[in-house]
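Input chain follows. Return structure tokens only.
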Amino acid sequence: MSVNFEKTKEITVAILREISKFLDEGVELITFDDIKRKLDHIPGDPRRVPNNLWSLERRGYIKVDRASNSVKLTNKGKIKLVEESGSFEVDGKWRMLSFDIPEDLRNKRNQFRRSIKRIGYKQVQKSLWACPFAKADEIELIIKEMKLEKYTAYLLVEKTDIDSHLKTLFHAELMLEK
């Protein structure tokens, strides 16, 4: 049996978005039944929704409380939504990120680097990364989830002397916004 990773990713993101919509509406407890009713439009066999939900729980994207039969989105799930969002809204500010993660945490450092690239950060210098997109503010979720607070510095910058360099670095992405 072959696994279609793109299809799995599509289903994962669709389910996480539905759960997120509940949270945006101020719903505290989301039940499996609520989710199943809302997921009739996602790709694939609707009878597989419970299996998909268990898979999301095993992978750490959701937390299931069996006593109340409810579902919560974890930080990891929120991060996945940020990474997969197509939002490239620019507000004129630069999100700057500097990190120095020790060698004994190499795997975590590599995972962190992949994650920040997925939300739009680009390397400016060896230890400095930048992003113009508002969604990049969610970097704090990633930092907390990976427990890297003591190794990172996050800055929201309105003015910088490397503005022209940053605009050149993000030229293609900024042109898409216009």
